[in-house]
Structure formats: structure tokens, C-alpha cells
Design brief:
The complex is a heterotrimer of chains A (264), B (260) and C (279). With 264 residues, chain A is mainly alpha-helical. Chain A has two domains: 36 residues; 210 residues, MetI-like (MetI-like fold). In chain A, helix 3 runs antiparallel to helix 4, helix 3 packs across helix 9 and helix 9 packs antiparallel against helix 10. With 260 residues, chain B is α/β, with parallel strands linked by helices. Chain B has a domain of 147 residues: Rossmann fold, CATH 3.40.50.300. Chain B contains seven helices and ten strands. Chain B has a six-stranded mixed β-sheet with strand order 6-7-8-3-9-10, sandwiched between helices. In chain B, helix 2 packs across helix 3, helix 2 packs parallel to helix 4 and helix 3 crosses helix 4. The longest helix of chain B is centred in the last third of the chain and has 18 residues. The two termini of chain B are 34 Å apart. With 279 residues, chain C is mainly α. In chain C, 78% of the residues lie in helices and 0% in strands. Chain C has twelve helices and no strands. In chain C, helix 4 packs parallel to helix 7, helix 6 packs across helix 7 and helix 7 packs antiparallel against helix 9. Chains in contact: A-B, A-C, B-C.
């Protein structure tokens, strides 16, 4: 009971914090201190107009299509490679240097090169999503495989399991919690990737819309789009987490393996 | 009939040398016999059990079961582990059926086939719980049911009650006796509890250490079925004090802590 | 047949040295695989690059390295590097300072945590690059907006990690301090701050990585000055090898900073690692 009331108290405080912040923003906006801060009421007014406009919906569809094309294969291959890296030492030795390099370099820096190779279009956006998500899934899956309890492997072996059965019935389920964590992180990174790549092109998708609205100093609309992108990120994460909880009822607290550079 | 002939096991150490865990171990276990192996830590009794299971290969000697040399795990044997080793992601019924599943049954068939064994260990109402929701004693009942479910001729038990508290341990021993009277399998039972070895077994192998080898094989002339009163009989006491004497001698200076 | 798990000995028999096929693997074997695979990638990169009809799009690694060598000797490169680096330093330091203070407050005071939660949550989910146009509208395309972008990229991670570090300070440790009647500020200085240093340093490391990302984002979105201008120019003039070289320089710079941050973290958080080894 006590923890419930503490939770409610925190919720009220969060709402107060939000209200105070928005009020301050409103005052700054009314004072017209900078074109970067229009009054909140103006931004809220722009939301319905922007979120229902054809231009916005087109951009949203473009961004979603890019994610839908690039993310699933990246996840699937990432999981496959991660299983091999985690289970077989020679594969680990061979791929570790490459994976570590990709995880410790600022991936955004590769975008100009990707544009050179794949052109200023969807190809580059897809490539950006792939490099942002593939390696993180590999690393998390491999880490998951390494959490496999060798005693369970031995138990399965004692009941006559071969390598294939061990892989399917023991290693894969053991790896699932961290694998899901990898998928969750990759989903967030895919959104970052598609937005930054579109921003660089400046023409298509939500990222392109952000650049064009910024260039036109259409600040209210710009905020409306940014707000949407942030909320979209939040909802996507929550959705993946909800699926994760359902699928893995035995997991108490999953741990993530997150590198320093999380993309744009 | 299990025949163990001249078994040895060497491990290479990191500094390039080698370490002899087991040396020239020979004995045999009769069909339907309850055979315990007892010895101080580091005598290689678990390694020996895993060799019978086909999980570890001997570097010398061989193990024959009914004339067939062991080269790997087989359908005639099933193992019960000290740390229970249940699948944390599967419910209890799936865990009991896991051995059957590995031997080719579908998940559904194996769960169905597992039900009577779950009932045998008295856990039917926990069928859909997860392992972490069960106490240690209950988890080991699941481990036992999983082994029995594959219908083994030989049950290999590696200090199965070693991780349990004293009261639970005693209850489990009595339950195991009842089950064994019904199932009539051969059991090789590794333990470091003298009471447990004497209470359960037909014969007890006492092992010596550095390297692990046979010190003596004791007959347990206690009547069956074993009961609570068995633990208070003079024969029982004589057996356990004999084992204690033997084991203490191996551990060297009694004022020093036993090597871990 | 049991090669993967190896012969494990039961509990209580741990004095037996680690054994089995894994332990017997030659200690040079991993290096053969590591160097072999990296070498293979470089060879493929080189050969594939040479097989192209033009070096406009895909440049062999040897040409990239040659171009990088040339860049490192040109004054223009270092000029551009300075224009990129100076605002980065300011934004980075600012993000560390603000992030650590905010993180300490959020981690220590539940009320502050709840008040700021909507903002931290939103900023954590938002691709920060979307704020670049706002920064431009606010400050133009000069140093100020570059500093702001780098700051925004770094600050969230520093805050979150610092807060986590404070939150996970052992309660017993705080009670011990209180039992000695320590005042709140002294308790903070003597107990809470040192105990949360590992979390803070993790925040510094991750925040540094994010700040570098912010720096590169500035370079590719605000292309008027610095390395970004070089990239734009080389793209315009089809000097692809030079473009690759500038990108490589940015990457190397990012990795160096990362290594540095990791070294600092290791030194500061040394007691923690030692504790973990003892335990």
C-alpha cells in the first residue's frame, strides 16, 4: 500500500513539474525572447493541424517503410550471428575485433561514406539503419548465449541431447532475455538512424520534414513534429518491453549490454 | 550389471603438468542394486559418476554396462544433479518431460507422459508453476521425476540431497526409498553423508583421495524396507562410525580444516 | 561429444585445475583468428575498391590511408579540426558538469527525480539530432549552437548514469554515516559522492561517446565550417579518397576519446573492481 501511494505522489509531482515547465515556456514565448521559443499554446495549437496534414503523414509513412524494410532482416541476421559468436569460440575470435570496432566508433560519421556508396536515397537510409542495429543485436545475443548455465547443457547432454538440440532447447531459451534487450535497444537505435539519415538528405521522411520546417523557421510545426518523434520513440520502447514481459515470464530483471555510442 | 575396470583420469594443468584425479578404479554394480559412493572432497567420485553417465571420458580403463562399453550418454541411464538443474524458462510439467522431449517426443506428448511421474513425487498441483517458485526439496523432486520419466535401468544420482537442509534431506531419503522399492532400478548414488549412504544402500564404496581410488567396499546388512527405526539400529551405528573412522584417517591431521 | 561443456567436476572438487579441450587450445590460436579476419576484411576492401571502374564511390583502403596522411600534413585540415574541436570541448565539459549535478540531485532527492522525470524520459527517447534546427534558430550556425548540440547529446546519459550511481549507494553505508551523526552536506561529501563515483564515471564515459556523436552530427548537418565543410567540399569535387580520410579521422578521434574516458573510469573506479574481485 505504501509503495502505491509513493507512486501516486511521484506521478502528481511529475505532472506538477511538467505544468511548471510548460508555464515557464509559455511566459518566455509570450515575451518573444527568441523565435526558437514560441508560446506553448501556439505549439499545442499546431499539433492537430500538423499531425493530420498530408505532408506529415507522407513523411511518417516514408520513415516507417524504411524501418520496416531494414530492421527485421538486421535483427534476424544479428541474432543468427550472435548465436554463433556466443557459442563457438573461433567465430567469436574472428568477429570480435570487427564488432567491437563498430560498437566503439561514432556510427554517424559513416553516413557521408554511406551516401557516397548508396546515393542520396532510400538505400543509404536502409544502410544506416542496418549499421545502427546489427552489431548491437549481435553483441546482446552473444552475451545472452554466454549466460547459458553449463550445468543445464550437461544435464541435456546426459539425457542424450546432441549439439543441435542443445542449441535449440537450451542455448536459445537461455539467450532470450538478453536477445530481447538487444531487440529493444535496436528498435530505439533504428528510429535514431532513420531520422538522422533523413535529416542529412533533407527531403524525405520525418527527418527531412524536421530539416525543411527548421529551414523555413516554421517553429510551431517543427516542435509538433519533434514531439511526435519523441512520443513515437517512447511508445515503441514501451511496446517492445510489454511484448518482452509477456514472452519471458520467468525473467526478473533483464540487463542490457549498451555501448558508448548510441547513434544520433 | 555395471563393470568398472581399471578406470583412470588425468587432467592437464595450466602450467603444462598433469593431475591424476582417478587411478585404477575397479568395481561392479549388480542389477537392481542401490550402490553408494562416498569419499572426501576431491576424491573424484562425481567424475566417476559422470563417466558412467557418459559425460566424461576416462583416460584409462573402461566401463561396461551389460557387456556394452560406455561411449556416451544412453537411453538406459538417467542422472539426478546436486543443483537440481531445472530449466528456469519452462514450467514444472515441461521440466519433468524434458528428458522425453530430448528423446524425440513432442512437447505435448512429453507433458502428457510426465504427469504420472509428477504425481509420484506429489507435485501434481505445481504442474504449471515455474522452478523459482518451488522450494529446494520440491525442485529436487522435479529433478527425480524427470529422471524416472525416461524409464531408466540405471539412476545416477550426484549428491542429490547435498543442497538441501537436514530435515528436507531426511524426508527426501525416505521418499527415495519408497520410490526405489517400486521402480526397481539400479542406483549409483554419490554422497558425502555417511548416514545417507548407510540408510539407503545395499553396498557402499569408500574412496580414498590423491589420486581417487577404491579404499573398500562395505556391505550394508540392514533389512529392507528401511524405516525410520533403521537409523537407530546398532548395525547402522556401527557402519557409520566405521566410515567416519576411515574418512577421518584420509583427511590427515584432524585439527586442520579439510581441503576444499 | 561433450566438448562444449568440457568435463566439469562436481562441487567440492574445485581444487582440480581447469581442464578440457578449451584449456588445451593453443594460446596463439585466438590471435590467428583475430588478425586473420581483420586482414581479410582489409584485403577485400582493397581488392573490391581496386576492381571498381571508378574511385568516386568506393575507395580502396590504401588510397584512404594515403589521403589521410596527406590531410594530416595540411594546415587546412588542422584549421578545420580546430573549428570542430573547440566547440566540442565546451559542449562536452558543459554536459559533464550539468549532467553530474543534475544526476546527483535526481539520485538523492525523490522529489527532484519526480519533478524532472517527464523531461528526462522524453529527451532519452528523442533522437537528439531533431533539436539541431532549433539550436540553429536559437543561435545561428556559429559556435554557440554547436556547443548546445554537443551538450544536448551528452547531458542525458551523464545525468541518468550519475543518478543510477547515487541510487545504488548501499543503504547500510548511508545509515552508518547517519549513525555517526554526520550532517547532510558532510554525508554527501564523505559517503554518497565517493560511493557513487563508479556510476558517475560510467556516465562520463558514455556521455563522452554521445558528445562525440553530437560533434559529428553538427559536422554533417551544419556544414558551414570545420570538418563538415571539408566533407561537403570533397563531396562536391568528387575527391572521395579525401572524404573517406576525413571520416576516418573523425572516427579515430572518437575512438581515442573513448579509450581515454575508459582509462579514467578504470582508474577512478579501481576500488570497485578490486572489491568485485575479492567477492
Amino acid at each position: 500500500m505504501r509503495s502505491m501511494s509513493a507512486k501516486n505522489r511521484n506521478r502528481v509531482l511529475s505532472i506538477i513539474g511538467l505544468a511548471v515547465g510548460l508555464a515557464i515556456w509559455e511566459v518566455i514565448g509570450r515575451l518573444e525572447l527568441s523565435p526558437a521559443f514560441p508560446p506553448v499554446t501556439a505549439v499545442i495549437g499546431a499539433i492537430t493541424e500538423v499531425w493530420t496534414s498530408a505532408r506529415f503523414l507522407d513523411a511518417l509513412r516514408e520513415s516507417l517503410i524504411s524501418i520496416a524494410i531494414a530492421l527485421p532482416p538486421s535483427l534476424i541476421f544479428g541474432i543468427g550471428v550472435g548465436l554463433l559468436v556466443g557459442r563457438y569460440r573461433p567465430v567469436e575470435w574472428a568477429l570480435d575485433p570487427l564488432i567491437n570496432t563498430f560498437l566503439s566508433l561514432p556510427l554517424v560519421a559513416l553516413i557521408p561514406v554511406l551516401f557516397l556508396i548508396f546515393g542520396l536515397g532510400r538505400g543509404s537510409i536502409l544502410a544506416t539503419i542496418v549499421i545502427y542495429t546489427f552489431f548491437i543485436v549481435v553483441v546482446n545475443t552473444a552475451a545472452g548465449v554466454r549466460t547459458t548455465d553449463p550445468q543445464i547443457v550437461e544435464m541435456a547432454t546426459s539425457f542424450g541431447a546432441g549439439e543441435q538440440q542443445v542449441m535449440r532447447r537450451v542455448v536459445l531459451p537461455s539467450a532470450l532475455p538478453l536477445m530481447y534487450a538487444g531487440v529493444r535497444i535496436a528498435t530505439g537505435r533504428a528510429i535514431r538512424a532513420v531520422i538522422i539519415a533523413e535529416q542529412v538528405i533533407g527531403l524525405i521522411g520525418l527527418g527531412g520534414l524536421v530539416q525543411r520546417l527548421g529551414g523555413a523557421f516554421a517553429v510551431e510545426q517543427l516542435y509538433a513534429v519533434i514531439l511526435f518523434i519523441g512520443l513515437f520513440g517512447l511508445v515503441s520502447m514501451e511496446a517492445v518491453t510489454a511484448v518482452e514481459r509477456r514472452a519471458l515470464p520467468w525473467v526478473i530483471a533483464p540487463e542490457d549490454t549498451e555501448p558508448a555510442f548510441q547513434g544520433a | 550389471m555395471i563393470e568398472i575396470e581399471g578406470i583412470g583420469r588425468r587432467f592437464n594443468t595450466r602450467d603444462g603438468g598433469s593431475f591424476e584425479a582417478l587411478k585404477d578404479v575397479s568395481f561392479s554394480v549388480k542389477d537392481k542394486e542401490f550402490f553408494s559412493i562416498i569419499g572426501p572432497s576431491g576424491c573424484g567420485k562425481t567424475t566417476l559418476l559422470k563417466m558412467v553417465a557418459g559425460l566424461v571420458k576416462p583416460t584409462a580403463g573402461r566401463i561396461d554396462i551389460d557387456g556394452q562399453t560406455v561411449i556416451g550418454p544412453g537411453e538406459d541411464r538417467a542422472m539426478v544433479f546436486q543443483q537440481f538443474v531445472l530449466l528456469p524458462w519452462a514450467d514444472i510439467l515441461t521440466n519433468v518431460g524434458f528428458g522425453l522431449e530430448l528423446r524425440g517426443m513432442s512437447r505435448k506428448e512429453s507433458r502428457e507422459a510426465a504427469k504420472p511421474y509428477l504425481e509420484q513425487v506429489g507435485l501434481t498441483r505445481f504442474a504449471e508453476h515455474y522452478p523459482h517458485e518451488l522450494s529446494g526439496g520440491m525442485q529436487q523432486r522435479v529433478g527425480l521425476a524427470r529422471a524416472l520419466a525416461v524409464g531408466p535401468d540405471i539412476l545416477l544420482m550426484d549428491e542429490p540431497f547435498g543442497a538441501l537442509d537436514a530435515q528436507t534431506r531426511q524426508l527426501m531419503q525416505e521418499d527415495l526409498m519408497r520410490l526405489w522399492e517400486v521402480e526397481q532400478t539400479t542406483v549409483i548414488f554419490v554422497t558425502h553423508s555417511m548416514d545417507e549412504a548407510a540408510y539407503l544402500s545395499d553396498r557402499v564404496l569408500v574412496m580414498d583421495t590423491h589420486p581417487g581410488r577404491v579404499r573398500e567396499i562395505l556391505d550394508v546388512p540392514l533389512p529392507r524396507p528401511r524405516e525410520e527405526s533403521t537409523r537407530r539400529s546398532p548395525v547402522f551405528n556401527e557402519l557409520t562410525s566405521h566410515m567416519w573412522h576411515e574418512l577421518r584417517g584420509m583427511m590427515g591431521d584432524p585439527t586442520l580444516p579439510a581441503p576444499e | 561429444m561433450v566438448a562444449q561443456s568440457g568435463p566439469t567436476l562436481g562441487s567440492g572438487e574445485s581444487q582440480v585445475p581447469e581442464a578440457g579441450p578449451r584449456a588445451r587450445a593453443n594460446r596463439w590460436t585466438p590471435w590467428v583468428f583475430r588478425i586473420g579476419s581483420v586482414g581479410l576484411v582489409l584485403v577485400i576492401w582493397e581488392l573490391y575498391g581496386r576492381a571498381q571502374e571508378t574511385t568516386l564511390f568506393f575507395v580502396p583502403v590504401s588510397s584512404v590511408l594515403a589521403a589521410l596522411w596527406g590531410q594530416l600534413q595540411s594546415a587546412e585540415f588542422w584549421d578545420a579540426f580546430g573549428q570542430t574541436f573547440i566547440p566540442f570541448i565546451w559542449g562536452w565539459l558543459l554536459s559533464l558538469a550539468v549532467g553530474i549535478v543534475l544526476g546527483l540531485l535526481i539520485g538523492r532527492f525523490n522529489t527532484f527525480d519526480a519533478l524532472t522525470k517527464p523531461y528526462v524520459t522524453f529527451l532519452n527517447a528523442l533522437p537528439v539530432s531533431t533539436l539541431v534546427p532549433i539550436a540553429v534558430i536559437l543561435f545561428g550556425i556559429g559556435y554557440a549552437s554547436r556547443i548546445l548540440v554537443v551538450f544536448l547529446f551528452g547531458v542525458v546519459e551523464v545525468t541518468l548514469n550519475t543518478a543510477a550511481g547515487v541510487r545504488y549507494v548501499n543503504k547500510d553505508l548511508i545509515e552508518m554515516g547517519e549513525s555517526f551523526n554526520a550532517s547532510q552536506p558532510r554525508l554527501f561529501r564523505k559517503v554518497i559522492f565517493p560511493a557513487s563515483l563508479p556510476g558517475i564515471m560510467a556516465g562520463v564515459r558514455i556521455g563522452t561517446g554521445r558528445a562525440v556523436v553530437g560533434m559529428v552530427v553538427v559536422e554533417i548537418l551544419l556544414v558551414a565550417v570545420g570538418m563538415g565543410r571539408l566533407i561537403l567540399r570533397y563531396r562536391g569535387r568528387f575527391q572521395s579518397a579525401d572524404l573517406y580520410a576525413v571520416v576516418l579521422a573523425l572516427i579515430i578521434f572518437g575512438i581515442l576519446l573513448q579509450v581515454l574516458a575508459r582509462q579514467i573510469e578504470r582508474r577512478v573506479s579501481k576500488w570497485k573492481h578490486e572489491m568485485e574481485q575479492i567477492a
